[in-house]
């Protein structure tokens, strides 16, 4: 019985260590690319920003404000 519990806890230990280590896919993947569409002082239409980003780059768009200027920022895989 002690042997069974020893094996059981060893397997749990191995699985916990494996889950903490970074995967090789994450290390090999390139950083995401960013495309910025300046909108000037116009309000950012989030729906339009998301649609533009998805259609143009197959990415995820969001609005960003910097002072009086608005931007549509698109993050996508290169």
From TrEMBL:
Organism of origin: Nelumbo nucifera (Sacred lotus)
GO biological process, one term: defense response to fungus
Keywords: Antimicrobial, Fungicide, Plant defense, Signal
InterPro entries: DEFL
Span of the signal peptide: 1-26
Family named by the database record: Belongs to the DEFL family.
Protein name in the entry: Uncharacterized protein
Higher taxonomy: Eukaryota, Viridiplantae, Streptophyta, Embryophyta, Tracheophyta
């Amino acid at each position: 019985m002690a042997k069974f519990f020893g094996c059981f806890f060893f397997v749990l230990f191995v699985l916990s260590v494996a889950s903490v280590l970074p995967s090789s896919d994450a290390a090999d993947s390139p950083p995401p690319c960013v495309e910025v569409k300046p909108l000037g002082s116009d309000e950012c239409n989030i729906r339009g920003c998301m649609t533009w980003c998805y259609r143009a780059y197959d990415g995820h768009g969001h609005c960003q404000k910097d002072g009086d200027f608005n931007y549509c920022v698109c993050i996508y895989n290169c």
